[in-house]
Specification:
With 95 residues, the protein is mainly alpha-helical. It is 68% helix and 8% strand. It is built from three helices and two strands. A hairpin with a 3-residue loop joins strand 1 (4-7) and strand 2. The chain is elongated.
């Protein structure tokens, strides 16, 4: 017959249960890596992901930058004209 052993809070368990609980107690706890090793691992992951990025060519970057600058200049002109028009209208209305 299976031997019974009293564990912890007064529960009786068989030999197999006692062996499992003893094994749980004897396992060393997994320690978390240090802060600096985690930072190093994260940086390594970031650089490995950056190598996988499909970077645009220099010509494409210059072209898209030119488009952005042109759109900004157009909006600058429109907003400045709108602001000037409204300020002139305010001068006419005010005494």
């Amino acid at each position: 017959m299976e031997e019974m052993k009293k564990v912890g809070g007064g529960d009786f368990v068989g030999n197999e249960g006692a062996k499992k609980q003893d094994a749980k107690k004897s396992k060393p706890k997994n320690k978390k890596p240090s802060f600096f090793s985690r930072i190093g691992a994260k940086c390594k992951d970031v650089f490995s992901e950056l190598k996988k990025v499909n970077w645009p060519s220099f010509g494409k970057v210059v072209k898209q930058t030119g488009i952005v600058i042109a759109v900004v200049v157009v909006f600058l002109i429109v907003i400045t004209a709108f602001d000037t028009g409204l300020s002139e209208l305010l001068k006419l209305i005010s005494f």
